[in-house]
């Protein structure tokens, strides 16, 4: 199966997918990496793995819709079976969702529906929850609201800082991403209400 991965930052989730795809038995490989900005480690990781990249910067398009159309076209060129937002910090638009909404997934660093948005670990710490984690879900038109594929929980420890909690979540998040993407592409999926069932 063909994976296109979208990134905006360090790309450690991308790296986990690149490493997993080295084994043909995994059943999926990263065929392209897209970004909304230049100069990020995620693009370097793709280049180091010999994977083609593209960059669509919002402000180089006259409107948000034109950016969305360009991103949609660039992703479509690589004929993905699954498109993965892995730390991609942009909300896609209607055209992208019309093209890929049945195959566009995102990994978020909280146990949704708690703590959507940019600061999952910080918000979890501030609230005082004892369990934090990561959620993999199909993207819909909302912010961190689509049907859930998988969740993993990690403890919040008494002396946690935002950094230590973020790292603990990210370790679990990477394992979950690799395992769930493998199952999705090998076994397929159906969406029932808010849940994604893997046969
Ligand atoms: C992930 O924890 C993701 O949930 C959050 O940003 C992080 C991306 O990390 N939105 P990386 O770029 O994959 O290292």
UniProtKB/TrEMBL annotation:
Any single GO BP term: 'de novo' IMP biosynthetic process
Domain of life of the source: Bacteria
Keyword Transferase: yes
Residues the entry annotates as binding N(1)-(5-phospho-beta-D-ribosyl)glycinamide: 11-13
Similarity-based family: Belongs to the GART family.
GO terms for MF: phosphoribosylglycinamide formyltransferase activity
Catalytic activity: N(1)-(5-phospho-beta-D-ribosyl)glycinamide + (6R)-10-formyltetrahydrofolate = N(2)-formyl-N(1)-(5-phospho-beta-D-ribosyl)glycinamide + (6S)-5,6,7,8-tetrahydrofolate + H(+)
Site annotation Raises pKa of active site His: residues: 144
Pathway: Purine metabolism; IMP biosynthesis via de novo pathway; N(2)-formyl-N(1)-(5-phospho-D-ribosyl)glycinamide from N(1)-(5-phospho-D-ribosyl)glycinamide (10-formyl THF route): step 1/1
UniProt name for this protein: Phosphoribosylglycinamide formyltransferase
Residues at which (6R)-10-formyltetrahydrofolate binds: 64, 89-92, 106
Organism encoding this protein: Phytohabitans rumicis
């Amino acid at each position: 199966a063909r994976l296109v991965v979208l990134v905006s930052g360090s790309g450690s989730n991308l790296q986990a997918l690149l490493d997993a795809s080295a084994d043909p038995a995994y059943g999926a490989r990263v065929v392209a990496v897209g970004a909304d900005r230049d100069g990020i480690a995620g693009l370097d990781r793709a280049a180091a793995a010999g994977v083609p990249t593209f960059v669509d910067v919002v402000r180089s398009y006259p409107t948000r819709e034109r950016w969305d159309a360009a991103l949609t076209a660039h992703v479509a060129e690589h004929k993905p079976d699954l498109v993965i937002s892995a730390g991609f910090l942009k909300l896609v638009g209607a055209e992208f969702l019309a093209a890929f909404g049945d195959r566009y997934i995102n990994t978020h660093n909280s146990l949704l529906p708690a703590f959507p948005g940019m600061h999952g670990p910080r918000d979890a710490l501030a609230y005082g929850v004892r369990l934090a984690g990561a959620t993999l879900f199909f993207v819909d038109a909302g912010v961190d609201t689509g049907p859930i594929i998988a969740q993993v929980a990690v403890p919040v420890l008494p002396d946690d800082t935002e950094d230590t909690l973020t790292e603990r979540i990210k370790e679990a998040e990477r394992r979950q991403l690799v395992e769930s993407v493998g199952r999705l592409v090998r076994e397929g999926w159906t969406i029932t209400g808010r849940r994604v069932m893997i046969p």
